[in-house]
Write a structure and sequence with these properties.
By secondary structure, the protein is of the alpha/beta class. It has 2 domains: about 210 residues, Rossmann fold (3-Layer(aba) Sandwich); about 40 residues, no CATH class. Helices cover about 45% and strands about 15% of the residues. It has a 7-stranded parallel β-sheet with strand order 3-2-1-4-5-6-7, with helices on both faces. Helix 3 packs parallel to helix 4 and helix 6 packs across helix 7. The longest helix has 29 residues. The radius of gyration is 18 Å and the shape is globular.
């Protein structure tokens, strides 16, 4: 495993689901962590302590509301003030709402774009000056299979994730004159709290129990018939964050059980 003990890793949405899996993986690699999440300070402190026990050199929790661009940029400023330049930025925070486009509340549309697309823009813009000064950086955007293909009733999420893939490519080109990379990981269905909500909705629709509703939900998407695991995404993030991954930039890494191969 790559040693990240000299590096600071900022992970948004780093307190649950995929974000927590990545936080734990980087902690085990000895990184200095800054984790974002919409939790009470006491809960954030508890997760930070757990990550320290798992090997993190240090861990700071920040509850910045990423729907606010200034708050997103402030997260980076506070992190740099406490830990120095951010070596690796992981834009992971995301929200979802499933509904037909004609009845999708405009405020839901806006919130999904604010968190899933606009916040990464602000965070990247805030991190890049110090990365350019250091001549080094790794930016990892957690997009989705929905950044490459579409599904019904997910207009805002699909639009945001397609936009995030486009942003990834642009940042990669703008930073190509230094050892700063920007890549997107595109997961398929991973059993996170976000996906569990969809499984429960499918459970109500079909009458299946939860354990059966999950595979039934993804059967037309994942040829493997299996959910992607959080650890599989974390391992891909570790790979892209490594110094030896400097030749990989502006691309999408699909971890989706074969979804986008169809």
């Amino acid at each position: 495993m790559t040693d990240f003990s000299s590096q600071t890793i900022l992970i948004t949405g780093g307190t649950s689901g995929l974000g927590l899996a990545m936080s734990e993986a980087f902690a085990a690699a000895g990184a200095h962590l800054v984790i974002g999440g919409m939790l009470a300070p006491a809960e954030g402190a508890e997760i930070s302590a757990s990550l320290m026990e798992k090997g993190a050199a240090s861990c700071l929790f920040d509850d910045a509301d990423l729907r606010d661009g200034e708050a997103a940029r402030g997260l980076v400023k506070r992190a740099e003030a406490r830990t120095g330049a951010i070596d690796v930025l992981v834009n992971n925070a995301g929200i979802q709402h499933v509904e037909k486009v004609e009845t999708l509340p405009p405020e839901k549309w806006q919130a999904i774009l604010d968190v899933n697309l606009t916040a990464p823009f602000h965070l990247i813009a805030a991190c890049l000056p110090a990365m350019r000064k250091a001549g080094y950086g790794r930016i990892i955007n957690i997009a989705s299979a929905h950044g490459l293909v579409a599904s019904i009733h997910k207009s805002a999420y699909v639009a945001a994730k397609h936009g995030l893939v486009g942003l990834t490519k642009t940042i990669a080109l703008e930073a190509a004159d230094s050892d700063i990379t920007c890549n997107a990981i595109c997961p398929g269905f991973v059993m996170t709290p976000l996906v569990a909500e969809q499984v429960r909705a499918h459970q109500e629709k079909t009458g299946l129990d939860f354990d059966a509703a999950g595979p039934d939900l993804i059967k037309d998407k994942h040829p493997t018939g299996r959910f992607v695991t959080p650890r599989q995404i974390a391992d891909m993030a570790l790979f892209l964050a490594a110094k030896n991954a400097g030749g990989i930039t502006g691309t999408t890494m699909s971890v989706d059980g074969g979804w986008t191969a169809q």
